[in-house]
Design brief:
The protein has helices at about 5-10, 30-50, 55-65, 80-90, 95-110, 115-135, 160-175, 180-205, 210-240. Helix 2 (about 30-50) packs antiparallel against helix 9, helix 6 runs antiparallel to helix 9 and helix 7 (about 160-175) runs antiparallel to helix 8 (about 180-205). Residues about 1-20 have low confidence and may be disordered. By secondary structure, it is mainly alpha-helical. Helices cover about 70% and strands about 0% of the residues.
Length: about 240
């Protein structure tokens, strides 16, 4: 009878790896760090352009793109505004924190303490970084179109866009470690990216952010989530 890999490990005095200890990272450590760095470089460029006022006209055109000429109402049927508000709620504080807490609890239930810690630290630190960035830039909200929902605080970078990218991409990356199949991990990340982009788009459609706010917020949030991917790559190397 052929011995299993676990038998060979036991014979060599090694403890076999359990499923909970395995970590299947989508990106290598180097690739994740390079992508994260590129995201933050792009964010720095967008922030510089915003501060210089060079793309103010493009920002205004981007806002008007979703508005009708008469009364600057949102284009489309009457239910379009309600649907857009529903999209933006995917990046709201309550829902994203509930999803994140549920994912952390599930990972802990399955004994994946390192993955749970990575997800918790990435999302909580990302929330603080996003809040500090908004306070630092202190850009006022758009005033050339009506706001289709109540908002508070500053505009750049978009907090919904930043945090949606952090939460949904990090969730996809971390939960993807549960599957050894690369196509499953890719599908999860693609879904996380798609949801966070919809949230970002909704903020412009509702008139509460300039296009540059949501683009910068999403890029920075994706860069922060990629740091989680880099951390997972380190865990994967250690557990292999």
């Amino acid at each position: 009878m052929l011995n299993s890999p676990q038998d060979h490990q036991a014979a060599a005095g090694e403890s076999p790896k359990t499923d909970a200890s395995r970590c299947h990272a989508l990106l290598s450590l180097r690739a994740a760090l390079i992508c994260a760095t590129l995201c933050w470089v792009v964010f720095a460029v967008l922030a510089g352009l915003m501060l210089s006022g060079r793309h103010a006209d493009l920002d205004n055109l981007g806002l008007l793109l979703f508005r009708s000429s008469a009364g600057l109402e949102l284009r489309g049927p009457s239910w379009a505004a309600d649907m857009t508000r529903g999209m933006t709620e995917l990046g709201g504080v309550t829902l994203r924190h509930l999803l994140a807490a549920s994912a952390v609890a599930m990972l802990l239930l399955f004994g994946m303490r390192r993955q749970a810690a990575i997800l918790f630290v990435t999302i909580s630190s990302g929330w603080m970084i996003g809040a500090l960035l908004k306070l630092g830039f202190a850009r006022p909200r758009p005033t050339n179109v009506s706001h289709l929902m109540g908002v508070e605080g500053y505009s750049f970078p978009s907090g919904h866009s930043f945090n949606a990218a952090v939460v949904y991409i990090s969730l996809a990356v971390v939960l993807g470690t549960l599957s050894p199949r690369e196509n499953v991990r890719r599908a999860l990340v693609a879904t996380g990216i798609a949801i966070s982009i919809l949230v970002s788009l909704s903020r412009v459609m509702l008139g509460v952010h300039y296009p540059s706010d949501v683009l910068a917020g999403w890029i920075a949030g994706a860069g922060w989530a990629l740091l989680a991917s880099a951390w997972l790559s380190m865990v994967s190397t250690q557990s292999s």
